[in-house]
């Protein structure tokens, strides 16, 4: 018999999918006393660890060093040219030749893959230590309380479950006339086998994935063309941040084609040609398609056991990760709630707390922080300005460029800003955007403010180090106070 939400913690939890949605849930379920089996067909850590978050951010770490190195001459750093002529002169003036930093892509990719695989092994070891059973194979629901697993050897076994958690994630969307070949026509999962830096990389799609890869490859030294179907890059993000990043991209030599929708791609003798819907063509040595994801929900037996899917194929869940079928929960990208690793993990944990009768706080997206790992980074928390306007919320906003910040000047940082939204009446911080180097770190005080309903005055009262980037956060908060007194 199934364990109901108010039964004592017990029973067998079967988790299908070992990404952040699945493995974090497994750890919580073990802590709550359940027997837990994770069914995973690729590797523990899921796409997040093996193909998406970890590899892309590791690649971007190298790109970040290249961006910093580019700025070195401005900070008075000169390197002598190599005698063998390997390095050309770089930088203004040309009086003192400097070394050109060059990317050894196979070395970068080897590091990326080693790091991803080590992290996957760490997660496996952690689950082992906690007593989670791991079954390698493809899972499928044959009943709401039974999961069939086809192993890599083709053998099938059935697991009886009191609770099932579906955490099968998503995969890259593929255009019918642009089939990836893993060599020249690529999805983001295939970027880590490239033997050399693409000479001219066409990136199709200017969402977060497209922007991150286009920015990184520009920094790594590739000639990049970003094909964006919309008016601007990062259409879903804060307009000031998107405008800034597009300007920085073009300043760094990227070609951004707006209102350009790709319809097909084909290989030529030594590269690719991408055809746009209006008939124009874009040539490159390689093309990366970053045109969104599709949930991995077909062939899982979900509809057969009565689990409701949305028209986009996502599993329909409520705020405690329940599907419409008792005992079947879902978490992460397969639900389409908010495709972030952090949200997947939270949904998975909530699902287990609910299923195993522990105290549970329903999912709230109000204070989720997110970061786009471009250079500069774009970090956001709370409500966006677009959402505040849509909902007719009375809000005030202040924004300061980082260029005025003394620490930024010392570091040679020119591009970036801090923007805070506060409620007109109460002064409560409703949301914020930080654009700058390591914005992913500096957003945290504002995440605390949004999470705990602090006012802009309370943020302003906290002291900041002088000189520091966070000084600008304090200053923007003070500007909101002055406006309230007008
Ligand atoms: C390029 C890129 C960069 C990203 N960067 C970030 C970032 O910096 N920060 C962030 O928070 N988010 C980031 N994301 C989003 C993040 O990757 C996802 O939100 C996260 O992976 C979702 O976790 P998940 O557990 O739902 O699914 P996944 O990580 O996709 O894991 C699902 C797992 O289920 C397995 N599986 C599927 N079907 C079956 C089956 N039938 N049987 C057994 N196993 C199965 C798969 O093999 C996979 O391992 C990024 C996404 C992309 C595409
Ligand atoms: N740093 C991070 O946290 C991070 C990084 C990557 C992805 N993600 C998560 O994944 C989500 C999805 O991001 P994404 O960028 O993969 O997908 P997306 O769906 O947000 O963006 C895809 C873009 O491609 C465009 N597009 C679609 N078809 C096209 C075509 N034929 N030609 C040209 N453009 C086309 C779309 O208009 C869209 O702007 C993000 O919202 C985020 O939650 C997070």
TrEMBL record:
Q: Note the InterPro entries from the entry.
A: FAD/NAD-bd_sf, FAD/NAD-binding_dom, FAD/NAD-linked_Rdtase_dimer_sf, Pyr_nuc-diS_OxRdtase, Pyr_nucl-diS_OxRdtase_dimer
Protein's UniProt keywords contain Flavoprotein:
yes
Keyword Flavoprotein carried by entry? yes
Q: Which cofactor does it need?
A: FAD
What SUPFAM superfamilies does UniProt report for this protein, alphabetically?
A: FAD/NAD(P)-binding domain (SSF51905), FAD/NAD-linked reductases, dimerisation (C-terminal) domain (SSF55424)
Q: Which residues form the FAD/NAD(P)-binding domain?
A: 12-348
Domain (Pyridine nucleotide-disulphide oxidoreductase dimerisation): give its ranges.
369-475
Keywords on this record?
FAD, Flavoprotein
NCBIfam families, alphabetized: PRK07845.1
Which family does the record claim for this protein? Belongs to the class-I pyridine nucleotide-disulfide oxidoreductase family.
Name of the protein described by the UniProt record? NAD(P)H-quinone dehydrogenase
State the organism of origin. Answer: Cellulomonas wangsupingiae
């Amino acid at each position: 018999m199934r364990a109901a939400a108010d039964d004592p913690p017990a029973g067998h939890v079967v988790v299908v999918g070992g990404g952040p949605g699945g493995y974090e849930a497994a750890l919580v379920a073990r802590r709550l006393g359940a027997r837990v089996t994770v069914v995973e067909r690729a590797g523990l850590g899921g796409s997040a660890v093996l193909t998406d978050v970890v590899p892309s951010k590791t690649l971007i770490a190298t790109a970040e060093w290249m961006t910093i190195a580019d700025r070195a001459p401005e900070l008075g750093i000169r390197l002598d040219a190599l005698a063998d002529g390997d390095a050309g002169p770089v930088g203004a003036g040309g009086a003192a030749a400097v070394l050109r930093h060059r990317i050894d892509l196979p070395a970068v990719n080897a590091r990326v893959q080693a790091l991803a695989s080590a992290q996957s092994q760490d997660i496996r070891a952690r689950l082992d230590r906690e007593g989670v059973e791991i079954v390698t194979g493809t899972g499928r629901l044959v009943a709401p309380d039974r999961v069939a697993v086809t192993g890599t050897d083709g053998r099938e076994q059935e697991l009886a479950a009191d609770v099932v958690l579906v955490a099968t994630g998503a995969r890259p969307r593929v255009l019918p006339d642009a089939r990836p070949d893993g060599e020249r026509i690529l999805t983001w999962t295939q970027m880590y086998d490239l033997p050399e830096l693409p000479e001219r990389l066409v990136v199709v799609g200017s969402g977060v994935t497209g922007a991150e890869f286009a920015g990184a490859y520009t920094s790594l030294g590739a000639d990049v063309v970003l094909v964006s179907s919309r008016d601007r890059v990062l259409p879903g993000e804060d307009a000031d941040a998107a405008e800034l990043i597009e300007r920085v991209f073009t300043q760094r030599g990227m070609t951004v084609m707006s209102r350009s929708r790709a319809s097909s791609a084909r290989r030529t003798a030594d590269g690719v040609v991408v055809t746009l819907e209006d008939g124009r063509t874009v040539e490159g040595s390689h093309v990366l398609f970053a045109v969104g994801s599709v949930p991995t929900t077909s062939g899982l037996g979900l509809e057969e056991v009565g689990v409701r899917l949305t028209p986009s194929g996502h599993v329909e869940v409520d705020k405690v990760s329940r599907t419409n079928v008792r005992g079947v929960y879902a978490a992460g990208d397969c639900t389409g709630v908010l495709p972030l690793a952090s949200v997947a993990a939270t949904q998975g944990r909530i699902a287990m707390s609910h299923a195993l009768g522990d105290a549970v706080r329903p999912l709230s997206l109000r204070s989720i922080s997110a970061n786009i790992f471009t250079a500069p980074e774009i970090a956001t928390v709370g409500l966006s300005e677009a959402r505040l306007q849509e909902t007719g919320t009375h809000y005030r906003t202040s924004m300061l460029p980082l260029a005025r910040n003394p620490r930024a000047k010392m570091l040679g940082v020119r591009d970036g800003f801090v923007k805070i939204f506060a409620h007109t009446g109460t002064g409560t911080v409703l949301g914020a955007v930080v654009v700058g180097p390591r914005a992913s770190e500096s957003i945290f005080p504002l995440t605390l403010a949004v999470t705990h309903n602090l006012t802009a005055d309370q943020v302003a009262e906290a002291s900041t180090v002088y000189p520091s980037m966070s000084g600008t956060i304090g200053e923007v908060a003070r500007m909101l106070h002055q406006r309230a007194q007008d």
